[in-house]
Structures are given as structure tokens and as C-alpha cells.
Specification:
β3 (about 35-40) and β4 (about 45) form a beta hairpin. The longest helix is centred in the middle third of the chain and has 5 residues, at about 90. This protein is mostly beta strands and about 240 residues long. The model is unreliable at about 1-25 (pLDDT under 50). It contains 1 helix and 16 strands.
Length: about 240
Amino acid sequence: MGITYNEGTHDGSADSIALETDCAQALYVNNGAVAHTLVVHGVTFTIAALTSLLLPIRFKDATCNGASGEYQLFTATEPAPALDVTKLAAQYGAIADDSVTAAKIPDASITSAKVAVGATDGAVAGLSASYCIAVGAGAADDHDITVPRKFRVLGARFIAEAAQPASDTVVLKNGSNTIGTMAVGGIADKATANMADIDTAQYEIAASGTLRATSVDNDAGTDFGGGIVIVDGIYVA
């Protein structure tokens, strides 16, 4: 066992004497499935999963006041465990029917990230999704949203929030490329107009791509009535 005296303030005062000894050893056992990171006397060690390491214990009068001090072993950082749902049934048994209730799911936590994707002639049905795009009144303009996953447009409709001037249209686009057109000119407030055509060469929006609704003021009066475009479709691979 080695003993070191450190007179920290270099003024000869008794309360500045620190006693440090490496006087024992401890066995650190990592029973987890992932590696742990440990700092021992300022040195960093990585302890692999299901392994152990023999470590010294240091007795230190940290405050330099002659008190009995404290045992200082090491600091350890364990990664947050990852839940592997694919192994739950094997380890704990199958999840009971109807056991995952709405109360157990955090609000706004379900996104499109894990839903099945559909395909033409595919055996797995794609989950339907709808996007709502506000199309403002006044001058013609582009109104964009970014889709998080690859999305196939299967239809769209315009809901008027005011009476629409004659001959105006709304064009649905994949970026700058036309998917289809809604003839909204002359419809009344609260009326709807469906997209009459779909270009299958443009109807799939890439992940992080732009789904755009463009109001077209064909009478050049900067008087587009405004409304909402509902775009229906499925996520695809």
C-alpha cells in the first residue's frame, strides 16, 4: 500500500494535508448486454458486455481538512438500454390480445416511421394517409409540405373556404411536376372539387420530397378564393 501526502496550499497549514492511499481492490462486473464506460482515477476504461475488471479503491481526504474522508471507487456510465420488441415474446411470452391500450401509448407518439408500405400488386396493403394543405386567398402561389416517407398520391380534393372566381384552378405537383388539376373556378363556399386526373409518372413523392398545391388565378384578378387541399395516398417502398 502506498501513502502520499499532498500539502495542497504549500503554506504548511495542517488543514491542507491530504492523505491518499490505494488500500483495497474491487471487482466491477458488467452483467449487461452492452459495454460500460468507467473512469478510474481519471483513466477511462471500457468494460465489454458480460466481462469484469479488478479496480483499486482510493481513500481520499478530498477537502484537505483532516477529516476521515470518503471512499472513492470509480464513476461508471451505462448506456440507456434499448428495447428489442422482437425478443419480448421469446423472453416474456406473447403480448396478450388487447393489452396495449390507448392509455399506455404517449400522445402524438405514433408516426409513419414503422407502418407497412404498399406496392402495386403487393400482398401487403399500404396504410392510407392524408395530407392537408392550406391554399391562401388572393394572388396565385405555391403551397408546399415535405413528406417524411415515399408517398403515392391516389386522389385529392379542394374544399372551398369562400366562393371561387370563375376559371381558377389548383394544381397538385410533385415538386414542380404536375400530378393533376382541380377545377375550382365558380364553386361556392364549402363546396368541393376533386382532382380529375392523375399522372402516374409523377404521383410518387420521394422521401423528404415536396408535395405542392399551386393556386392558379386564371382571371388575373389576384382574387383566388382560398381553401384546403386534401391529398390522399399510401406510403410505398
